């Protein structure tokens, strides 16, 4: 029983940290409306590289949009 409780607390902590980390990584340029609009889009595999407003490089604009990041 003690192992189950410990494991449950550990998993809850990890999930919370991942959620916080993902939302903070996107910074102030994260756009929830853009994310909601494109979260289910199918993106092609072409990968010319697109810089997002967060300074990170995404495979293409579709991939960035799916994550709620506008193209720079």
Task: Provide an overview of this structure.
This protein is mainly alpha-helical and 72 residues long. Helices cover 51% and strands 6% of the residues. It has one domain (2-66). It is built from three helices and two strands; from the N terminus they run H-H-E-E-H. It has a two-stranded antiparallel sheet. Strand 1 (50-51) and strand 2 form a beta hairpin. The longest helix is centred in the N-terminal third of the chain and has 24 residues, at 2-25.
Q: pLDDT average, as an integer?
A: 79
Which class of secondary structure composition applies to the elements? mainly alpha
The sequence of SSEs as H and E is: HHEEH
Cα-based radius of gyration, to the nearest Å: 16 Å
Ends apart, CA distance between termini: 51 Å
- Walk across the major sheet and give the strand order: 1-2
User: Helix coverage percent of residues?
Assistant: 40-55%
Low-confidence parts, pLDDT < 50 over ≥5 residues? 14-24
Strand content is 5-15%
How many β-strands, per DSSP? 2
Shape call = elongated
Main sheet properties: 2 strands, antiparallel
The domain count comes to 1
- The number of helical elements comes to 3
């Amino acid at each position: 029983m003690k192992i189950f409780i410990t494991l449950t607390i550990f998993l809850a902590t990890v999930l919370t940290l991942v959620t916080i980390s993902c939302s903070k990584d996107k910074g102030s340029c994260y756009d929830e409306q853009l994310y909601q609009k494109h979260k289910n889009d199918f993106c092609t595999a072409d990968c010319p590289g697109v810089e997002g407003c967060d300074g990170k490089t995404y495979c293409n604009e579709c991939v960035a949009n799916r994550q709620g990041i506008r193209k720079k």
